[in-house]
Amino acid sequence: MEPSSPTDTQKSLPPPPPLPARLLTLPPLIWVGTGLWFVLSCVLLILRYGYDVGPPIWLWTALTGTILGFIGLFVMWWQRTAATRGSRGAQRVSSTAE
Residue 92: CB partners within 8 Å, gap ≥ 6? Predict the structure, then answer.
């Protein structure tokens, strides 16, 4: 028998399980990724302007990755401070995750 409405289906589904703790620890991943983009940007800056090697799109891609990494770090800091002060719209990480 088909459910009569989408709300019937949603009511019958169990709640999703909590995420594992290793998926909730994003800061190390963001720091490592941003650091790698930064190192690559430095290397490409030296190669591009010191030795005139490599297309400029590589340099701009690495610089964009670095900037987006820093934006991601800022957003994580912003969410963490909002959760600390008890803001209703802040994302919270459960400490009971496995």
Answer: 83
The three-class DSSP label of residue 25 is coil
- Cα–Cα distance, 91 to 2 (Å, whole number): 35
Judge contact between 82 and 73, C-beta under 8 A: no
d(CA 22, CA 10): 28
* Residue 44: Cβ-neighbour burial (10 angstroms; 0-12, 13-18, 19+): buried
Contact 79, 87 (CB under 8 A): no
- Per-residue pLDDT tens over the stretch 14-59: 888 888 877 778 888 899 999 999 999 999 999 999 898 888 999 9
pTM of the model: 0.65
